[in-house]
Each structure stands twice: as structure tokens, then as C-alpha cells.
Amino acid sequence: MITDMVENIGGDKVQVEGLMGSGVDPHLYKASEGDVSKLYNADIIFYSGLHLEGKLVEVFEKMSAQGKNTIAISDALDKKTLIGSEYFASNYDPHIWFDVDYWATMTHYVTEKITEADPENAAYYVSNRDAYLEKIKVLKDDLTAKIDELPQEKRILVTAHDAFNYFGRRFGFEVVGLQGISTATEAGVQDVQRITQFIIDNKVKAVFIESSVPRRTVEALQAAVRDQNHEVSIGGELYSDALGSAGTAEGTYVGMYKHNVETIVNALK
Ligand SMILES: [Zn+2]
Question: Chief location of this protein (predicted)?
């Protein structure tokens, strides 16, 4: 998501390299030697922060201590407005990109940082920023219109891991993640039993897999619901912690979000 943002702002004045591609889980991601040398050679390093990239915290701290321009984009946000979480060392839920307004705030912040590093091209970056912000504004209207098709009682989102709390807060969904908020903890038998009962009690029509999390936990859940003589379908694949493949619509922030909301609404309607 950050790669998409920086490419949009930087345009052809900035060479951008994203370390984590499509389908990659940031909670478990470890830096390779090649990554470390890319980080050393970078003029600016952008990362999400709030311990999303749990295994990279030390690498980022080391880069920063050595004078590299290392920026957590979540620093742009007012911490008091974040959703708390006991599962992360930051004490906050780090899946901040699913709040569209946060994404706009962080777009301003990243533009400031790029402009500070390359003031000569400031006007260019600001103009790109405004074009990106306009896309985000249109996206927000599109998402709201699509979600309005879904009655309140059907707004229950069951996914592989708890990445959608900011989405749920904004659009009035109850959100249930099988694996908890980080994929570092596996779903246990009790989690599956509890959520199976929840699905039956609330007549949930569909549950969702995620592109960056193995699908087996969600399939185990579907099987457990069947064992109770109920039916829940797999509503499709959502992009939670990674975008789709580069060069596809889902490989962009806007396309990813539209895909997710269309998938969710169409499956739960
Ligand atoms: Zn996550």
C-alpha cells in the first residue's frame, strides 16, 4: 500500500522499490540480505509502523540510528483516535490503511517528507498528491454507495485474521477474525468452535479468505459449520495486508479497496 502511495506522489522523479510484494504477510516478513542493502542505499525508507512489520522493528531502528531517513507513516496519525490492541507491542491495531481518511492524512505526511528531501520538485509532488487525494475522495464515495446496498444486520465480516477493524468502525460492520489481530498466533480449536457458533447464531451467509494468509483456517471453519448441519459459503478472497499483483487493478490501493467491498457486499447481500 505504501509503495502505491509513494509511486503516486513521486511519479517519475522518484525510484520506488517495495520490499513486500503481492500476497506477502508483513507480520511475519523478515529482511533478506538483499533487502538490507536496498535499505542502506535508499534516500528515504517509508514503513507503516505500530509494529505491523513485527520482525523488522530492529532493522528500522538500526537504519535510523545510522542516520538514514526512516519514516513510519503512522506517525502522521493522532494516536488517541487509533483502535487499541493488546496483541501488538505498540498497543495499537496497525491495520490503519483501511481508514480512508487516515490514508489521506498519511498521503499529506509522505508528500511533506519527500518534498523536504527534494525541495526542487515540490510543486510536482504537491500536484501528484492532489491527484491521488482526489482518487481517494472518489473511492470513499464509491465505497459508501456500495455498502449502502447492505442492510445493517448483514454487516458481519468474518475473515482469516483481524485486519478489518478500521474498516468495520467506518462502515458499521461487526468484524471477527479467526486468527486474531496478528497472523503470528494461529487459530485454536476453541476459536473455531466459538466462531462456528457465532456464524450459526447470526445466520452469516459467507466468510472470507485473505490473499496474504493461508486459506486452511477459513476452510476448517466452513467444515466445522457444516458439521453442525449449517451452510456458510466462502465469499471470495480479500486483500488485507498486501495488494494484488502489480499491473492489475487490485495492485493499487483504490482497486484493492473496491475489490474488497464489492466482494463483501455481493457475498453477504
Ligand atoms: Zn494483519
Answer: other
Same-domain pairing of 91 and 185: no
Domain count, the chain: 2
Kindly state whether residues 189 and 117 are assigned to the same domain.
Answer: no
Looking at the fold, whether 74 and 190 belong to one and the same domain comes out as no
**Are 132 and 154 found together in one domain?**
no
- With the C-alpha atoms ordered 235, 241, 245, 250, is the resulting torsion angle positive or negative? positive
Cα(53) to centroid(ligand 1), Å = 9
Residues whose CB is under 5 A from ligand 1 (ion)?
A: 163, 241
Report how far ligand 1's centroid is from the alpha carbon of 124 (Å).
33
Q: Would the pLDDT of 184 be above 80?
A: no
pLDDT at 181: 65
The whole domain housing 181 covers 150-268
What is the number of alpha carbons within 13 Å of residue 50 lying toward its C-beta?
A: 23
Q: Are residues 28 and 44 in the same domain?
A: yes
Residue 208, Cα to own-chain centre: how many angstroms? 15
Reported confidence tier of residue 86, pLDDT bands at 50, 70, 90:
confident
Separation of CA 93 and ligand 1 centre (Å): 9
What is the sign of the dihedral through the CA atoms of 141, 95, 260 and 5?
Answer: positive
Measured in Å, residue 34 CA sits from the centre of ligand 1 at: 24
Report, as an integer, the average pLDDT of 81-96.
91
The span from the CA of 16 to the CA of 254, in Å, is 19
Residues 94 and 213 in one domain: no
Give φ, ψ of 258 to 5 degrees.
-65, -45
pTM over 0.70: yes
> Same domain, yes or no, for 97 and 200?
no
Q: Verify that 75 and 12 share a domain, yes or no.
A: yes
- pLDDT tens, 211-266? 999 899 899 999 999 999 999 999 999 999 999 999 999 999 999 999 999 999 99
